[in-house]
Write a structure and sequence with these properties.
With about 625 residues, the protein is mainly alpha-helical. About 60% of the residues lie in helices and about 5% in strands. The strands form three sheets. Strands 3-6-8-7 form a four-stranded mixed beta sheet, with helices on one face. A two-stranded antiparallel sheet has the order 1-2. Helix 12 runs antiparallel to helix 13. The relative contact order is 0.11.
Amino acid sequence: MTDNGRKKKTGKVSGQMLWFLLGALGVLAMGIPYLMLGKDAVFVYHDQLDGEVIAYLLQARHLWDGSGVLPEFMNGAAKTALTMPAPACVFLYRLLPAPAALSLMQVLGSTAGYVGMFLLLQWAGERSEVLRHRGGAAGFLAMLVAGMYAYLPFLPVYGLSQYGLPLLLYCVLRLGEDGRAKKSYGLAYFYVFLFGVNSSLVLAGFAVLGIWTVWEVAALFRKRFCVRQGIAWVLLLTVYLAENGTLLLELLGKGDGVISHKSEYVLNPAGFLNQFWTNLIQGGQHSVDYHQWIPVSLLLAVVAVWLCRRGRKGIDQENESTEQTVQKTDNRCGKALAASCGSILIFAVAAALWDSAAGVGIRSGLGALKGFQGNRVLWLSPCLWYFALGCSLLLLLECFPEKQAADTTDRESNGVGGRDGRGRKVLGAGMMLVALVTVSLTAVQVLMESDLKPNVQKLINRDYGAMSFRDYYAIDVLDQVQQYIRKTYGEEPEEYRVVSLGIDPAAALYHGFYCLDGYSNNYDLNYKHRFREIIAPELAKSEYLTDNFDHWGNRCYLFSAECPGYYTVQKGGFYFQDYEINAESLAELGGKYLLSAAYIDHSEDTGLELLRQEAFETEDSYYRIYLYGVKGK
């Protein structure tokens, strides 16, 4: 290679590296608002602050005690009642304050998503001579798509279950290539292990293992089986089994004889076609990726490739040679685009079948396993949508006419030939422009829906209305309650049990209270029945609440028919006018205090006693907490 050639290649590599570093800085910058806000940072609370964060906190508190139970949670529930989605991240909650640990999970997850998607797109285009020649532009497109994926509002408590998928796919693909350095194989194995300990088997891991199995079986039949990939599959399976062995045995009825409340789940089927369309257009729960505009880029890429392969007949030999270079390139982008789109369709169909009448009919006979959410296979779709988007942009870039070829056509062709050269150049530029516009629309939507937006607004205006970490967990307010009980009654948290009304039990758990209520997707059915006696008076007033608790029951809460579906009551003029509770059953279960986010009128008629007339609050607190005692305790 000549000196000029080496400089040119180095320049292109440096260009890609520059775009990669700029994008990485943009991803890492999302951590700045979290760092500045601390406990005032804003996080999604549904399925995060109300459940998974508490799982990490309680498991971290009892990490080394070996007892197998969580004494603060639901009167001493088994640790399997709160399964961590990313088990290794428990050490973050052991070493750091919870808001810092959660913020770090967000930044690390997004960074893994960015790096993985960038490398995956680099892999897709590395065999294309044209894309190597246009390395800077290819690097920019990879940075753009990878940055969008990194900013998708996945819940950080799930670790690498979603953000880590592109890097896992990249590692598996590299393991299938011969002639690479042993060090690179070692790094790939290490990441497979890292993915296993930082992701959830029941949320995404089962889908990864299942699809990977199909891949390996197909490779075996095609005589392309790779031992390294097979070893990686075994490694991931082993990690998941080690992490979830106790839970799996329990769900299979091989545990300590405890029956999961999931056995009482009542499944409601959905129409197949409607559910398929929803899965395809919107995605599944916690996997919304705002891909509505991406199909435009995919269609443009298909058209561009078709035109690129069809045209240029009758043009000079130089143009034919250029076109043949494009056609003969071992282009992974096209294959990856087709495979991604096909997989997305299969996932949408599989998830729709799982939720259809036929699927529900089969699942209803599986006992506790009927609650298994097989539709979580849709969690893999966002990775494939954005990989497909990146491949489509690279294909458009590859099919964009070479400047030299276009200039040659313009100089040496008169009439049709010249117009054709200029026309293809204009058409290519127009298609790329339209694709970039659709990408920009997607990027804006992703940015506006990301967790960065409310935190930036919170930085600018501390009175911004979004509920913060401090607000949700009633920090500074429940501290007052705990101190009051300690000073007035001389009791430590482990000596009494509490329940919460109008404030999520997660807040009390965060502060170290021992709670009878909580949010769990796998707890003792007998405990559910005993707790139902406590809330029976309110369930009797609301068909919605009865259906929610009896047929689902993951939220073992004190419900109120006056505000069904609302688990947090902000301080203000609202008060409970006709709240009823079975105080006797509450006392039998061990309940001594009730923490209410609103005043309960005529509380003495239902077996409760207001212990302090003045509510606990701070000037800017979200909650106003009233402390009630349970008669009979």
